[in-house]
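Database export, one record per block. Field names are fixed; values are copied verbatim from the stored entry.
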Amino acid sequence: MSRLIFHIDVNSAFLSWESVRRVKQGLPDLRDIPACIGGDPKKRTGIVVAKSIPARKYGIQTGEPMAMALRKCPELVIVQSDFSLYVKCSKAFKEICATYTPVMESFSIDEVFLDMTGMSLLYQNPVATANEIKDRIHRELGFTVNVGISVNKLLAKMASDFEKPDRVHTLFPDEIESKMWPLPVRNLLFLGKASEKKLNKAGIYTIGDLAHARESEIQVLLGSKNGHQLHQYALGIDDSPVKEHAEEAKGFSAETTFNEDIVSLDQIFPILLEQCDIVATRMRRKGKKCLSVAVSFRTLDFKKRSHQASFQNATDVTDEIYEQAKKLFREFWKGEPLRLVGVSLTNLSEDEYEQFSLFEDAENKERHRKLDAALDMIRQKYGNDKITRASIMNSNSGIARKARAQMQNELETQLNDSKKKENYNEL
């Protein structure tokens, strides 16, 4: 049986979701005017996270500083990010998509893959079905999506990136030569700027050029593994399955980008505690402990640095993780202004056995563990925003809001998965 895969992608997700809310409030539609998401609208600082099509006509780029965007378009409307809104809209979007097949993979907050293989008795015409999904999302939720259709995930995603917005595109194997090969090589999925430069230097400018080149030559340019994969992609070959459930996490991380320079430990530590609290909570929900913690930071020269330390025993205690993170910062940060701070937990285990050191205060550790358990219970029962540590209440990093919304979404996804299974079992 030939596979049939849909890739559904929300058009300018953050901007679209904010636009729907504003239209309901009687405000101008951000999609129709030069507008962007990101930064502080009062200070007019930060970076562009998402932009409207009219803003794009001024040459405004995602990721560029807001000051630069304003120079290009002084009348640019700036709206601050609202992650709780994005989670709600993402949930509603995915709930509609999940009604069409029992096998759906959440690829990102605004993208899903649907495995429609074997669903022909219910949906005989793939293009008509894709249009039905697209139009239903627009009708019920107020924003548009693109749908790509093919026999694998790679080609389906490539198809959804064709002309936007509000379109359905196919990219079946017999269409690769006419639809995909003429595209610039940078349009190939997972091909980065560095690889593009190397390929261009070798006379490879289109995806077709890459497909017709010898794989061995591509491997010399890009490395054995990467060269093989990208050459396969250029030929339209991809056997990866649509994963209904996410792979087991290899680690947990959180990071925050700042609009203004961070120049002191007094500024860093509350943010770091907030991040440690979040990642440790997520880790405990998965029943894991970590053996390693790493801190990362980015300076004004855009160089990102990371430093790691290991624990004697695997831990899931927030305060232990935080103390080690603080130590790493004291040891490796030289005082230069920062624009990003992050923390990550790796080397995960489920080992319940713990050997205490003679110099370790076991009673104190147990007290901290009980505190963590109490906080976890309250958050899971009443919501992630209902309780926080007093020492970080005045933190304005936004990491708590974003990450706790993510945790809430994870819980709701688990519930929705179980409900979806029940519904399909009844059919």
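Remark 1: The longest strand covers residues 304-315.
Remark 2: The chain has 15 helices and twelve strands.
End of record.
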